[in-house]
Amino acid sequence: MNVAKVIVDVPASSINQTFDYSIPERFREMLKPGMRVIVPFGPRKIMGYVVDRVGESSFNNLKEINDILDITPVLTPELLDLGKWLAEDTLSLYITAFQAMLPQVLKANYKKELERLSNDSLSEELEAFFADRDHVAYDELENAMVSFSQVQKAIQNGDIAVRYLVKSRVTKKHVAFVKPAMEPHLLAEALEDMSGRARKQKEILDYFIDQNEEIELNKLLKKFETTRSTINALQAKGFLVLFKKEIYRNPYNDDAFEQTTALELTDEQREAIEPIKQHINDTEHDVFLLHGVTGSGKTEIYLQAIQDVIDKGEEAIVLVPEISLTPQMVRRFKGRFGSNVAVLHSALSYGEKYDEWRRIHRKEVQVVVGARSAVFAPFENIGIIIIDEEHENSYKQEDQPRYHARDAAIRRGENHQCPVILGSATPTLESYARAQKDVYKLAVLTKRTNEKAMPEVDIVDMREELHSGNRTMFSRRLKENIEQRIRRGEQAVLLLNRRGYSTFVMCRDCGHVKECPHCDIALTYHKRHNQLKCHYCSYEEPMPMYCPSCSSDLIRFFGTGTQRIEEALSQLIPEARVLRMDVDTTRRKGSHEKLLNQFANKEADILLGTQMIAKGLDFENVTLVGVLTADSMLHLPDFRSGEKTFQLLTQVSGRAGRHELPGEVIVQTYTPEHYSIELASRYEYLQFYKQEMQMRKKFQYPPFVFLALITVSHQNHVTAVQSTQEIVKRLWTLLQSESVILGPTPSPIARVKDRYRYQCMIKYKHEPELRTLINQVVRQFDDEVRKNDLQISVDMQPYQLM
Ligand SMILES: Nc1ncnc2c1ncn2[C@@H]1O[C@H](COP(=O)(O)OP(=O)(O)OP(=O)(O)O)[C@@H](O)[C@H]1O
Ligand SMILES: [Zn+2]
Ligand SMILES: [Zn+2]
């Protein structure tokens, strides 16, 4: 078994296969599938994953593996298998699938160097560039006077070469410690022999005679107000040893969480959890859809099911949307399971994430709570996988590999024969339809645990407000209610639904809208720097004084940002203390938590924010929820916009009146008659499901059909259109007659970063060979992709239709 099959780190479809390498003698014993290795590949050295060991290869003259990067495999056999499946299912490259399963720091990063091979004199520019050095970092080329063609020519002549240096980014944190080098009684003897002048040294020896154990160097220095040279002297005499110890960066202080115990379940909860416990006990797989209204105690069900899994000696994965991975959520899991929980989310530094991942890898924890990619936690005895708020779009990854965490979770649930729980107050139509067909088991919680009614929802028609002369963003009803809450010392949450609603700049004279010169999208106004920014390519320019089209000075920004609302609010209700929570105020680590704490401590009357406040928040004193613009995303070119509106309104309404005080919700809208808004205001999920299903059936959208989206982009408009046309033409000849191919059409955002984007959408019911066929068609463009910078992306489960 001296041949390794390796997936190399070259993200190109022509390289998407294993390569054989021979395993040199010195690695034969330790090398296992799932380890990262360094291998020669063409002229360079790159990182790769060993996926298998075999006896022989059908190729001669195999190259040898250069190095091994891991002592234990980073990918378990199950994850290797999952990665292969994931890549094939999503039409992604194997390498990107494996990379997606691991923390960032394990991805090797490459440095390039130019190496001088020849002593013959080079061109003047190159001589100046090398300046008597043999190696020069490739990056230096950028600022050098050498042209790339010169470099290329020198490479062709064999005068210089490009070298790839592989450097793994692993950064373990090491801290210096000190410990005694001998038994206390020997130290005591040494102490007696020591000269009286070495006072500090004597004190320290005295300390170690008492405390015969290691201590962090810094703590020791502080304790004795001394410097490192004292310790060095003691080490030189052989009394003490200095050593380095690896420590974990724990982003959470586990002692700070108040411990909780299991609550007595309500009848509904007991009925819902029973079959789940049964499956855990029997080591049996099934998918459960837990449909429970907000505040019905879904989380308590998760916690008690996980307790069973822990008692059985197995492990649990809990996925929550990034946006709701709030300190409150973490507290609930750490509160129950303490340091047995690892947390993975994007606000952690790379180092912290790596440390949490290693606690999982070493089986030091049994529970992981994390965002999407936590579904790949390297556990080997999984007893349950939970996806909270299963309807959230953030479970779908929007770049390669374009996977949905739900699919990966179910696949792992099958592998480990354990239950998978999908929880939501507003399940996706796809999941609910599966539960109706008994593909998933349905568990229902209809009541809040405190038996309190859901808060009353009031719909305010903003057109009427306008007609009666109110031009502000706040209806009279909302304003009165806010004022009343402030008087009573209660609190309010205000949601600005920002999706599809940005602050664009328009000329009031001629209607000209400022767009990004590289992307077909309106620029967004940022007040702080008085700049216009593109949210797709980061292009920026100052806010113009005059319209670039007609020179009018009536150029103004439109739309509504949280900043503007905050200003308007303080004019309207000057006594209100407002906390604003959006991407701008929560970018810094810990700021999210700080804002929530301030609100919990009643340092503000109003929490104003975007979607991120709609999830998971639970404040006793919140009795009013206001939705400023309920319909702003109803008109997006997306067949799910009605569903998303329903979900958001239901979620945000669930924030009010969760405790003793009754709650109220005010929803402002320009389309009060829309069924998504109307049914959400009455909490009629089932009715909404039925009505929306009719629409989907009529227009043939999921769950009645499956979709696949192919997007093609190129700098040249004609190339983009023609390539898409070509793809569509070939697909028509290959697919079944009931399948439909829509397009080519320009993507909803037709140009991004100076590339024109075209797309085609496949709607199908049954295409068992679809992935192979699409692959076949796309591969015919490999040459164009490589030489001509054509880009083709395939999404087998599109959510973002932009
Ligand atoms: N059996 C129970 N007895 C008493 N209180 C309970 C019980 N189960 C849950 N609770 C409490 O009820 C409240 C709501 O529960 P929880 O947050 O778990 O609901 P949820 O369905 O997850 O809500 P959401 O979907 O809104 O996040 C919490 O304060 C929780 O501690
Ligand atoms: Zn103008
Ligand atoms: Zn742009």
TrEMBL record:
Domain of life of the organism encoding this protein: Bacteria
Keywords: ATP-binding, DNA replication, DNA-binding, Helicase, Hydrolase, Isomerase, Metal-binding, Nucleotide-binding, Primosome, Zinc
Top-level EC class: isomerase
Pfam families referenced in this protein's UniProt entry, alphabetically: DEAD, Helicase_C, PriA_3primeBD, PriA_C, Zn_ribbon_PriA
Domain Helicase ATP-binding: 279-445
SUPFAM superfamilies cross-referenced by the UniProt entry: P-loop containing nucleoside triphosphate hydrolases (SSF52540)
Transmembrane residue ranges: none
InterPro entries xrefs: DEAD/DEAH_box_helicase_dom, Helicase_ATP-bd, Helicase_C-like, P-loop_NTPase, PriA, PriA_3primeBD, PriA_3primeBD_sf, PriA_C
One Gene Ontology cellular component annotation held by this UniProt entry: primosome complex
Binding-site residues, Zn(2+) 2: C516, C519, C534, C537
Reactions this protein catalyses: Couples ATP hydrolysis with the unwinding of duplex DNA by translocating in the 3'-5' direction; ATP + H2O = ADP + phosphate + H(+)
Cofactor: Zn(2+)
Manner of cofactor binding, per the entry note: Binds 2 zinc ions per subunit.
EC number per UniProt: 5.6.2.4
All copies of domain Helicase C-terminal, residue ranges: 542-710
GO-annotated biological processes: DNA recombination; DNA replication initiation; DNA replication, synthesis of primer; double-strand break repair
Gene Ontology terms, MF aspect: 3'-5' DNA helicase activity; ATP binding; ATP hydrolysis activity; DNA binding; zinc ion binding
Subunit structure: Component of the replication restart primosome.
Family: Belongs to the helicase family. PriA subfamily.
Function summary: Initiates the restart of stalled replication forks, which reloads the replicative helicase on sites other than the origin of replication. Recognizes and binds to abandoned replication forks and remodels them to uncover a helicase loading site. Promotes assembly of the primosome at these replication forks.
Matches recorded under PANTHER family: PRIMOSOMAL PROTEIN N
HAMAP family linked: PriA
Protein name, UniProt field: Replication restart protein PriA
